[in-house]
Design goal:
Elements: H1 5-18, E1 23-27, E2 33-36, H2 38-44, H3 48-51, H4 56-59, H5 65-75, E3 77-85, E4 91-103, E5 106-114
Antiparallel strand pairs: 1-2, 1-5, 3-4, 4-5
Amino acid sequence: MSSSEPLVQSVLLGEAVEHAPVAILVADEEMRYVAANATACGLLGYTREALLKLRITDIARYPEAEGEFEAMIATGELMGRTTVVCKDGTKRSLRHRSSETSIAGLTYYVSVLWPDP
């Protein structure tokens, strides 16, 4: 393997995730969004800049949302349905899979969301 292959793979993976046909959101331990792909921004109606100023509970506005996040932290993974509120106030029911990951030694939480076909 040449020394440039990991870098090429990283760039290709980053491009693939950015334009994936599913919404991908990354949050920190305080439930603040730290990354979002283009599909997440489009689905929720926010610019990336605006979305990265929000917390999970700004999008998932239901009483159980914080407890679900804590359960995901405790078990390392959560799958099912969630309801999100888009910027225009529209509510959408989405499927999701969320799990813990480590990036550069720091813990983050990645959620993949998609509508039913």
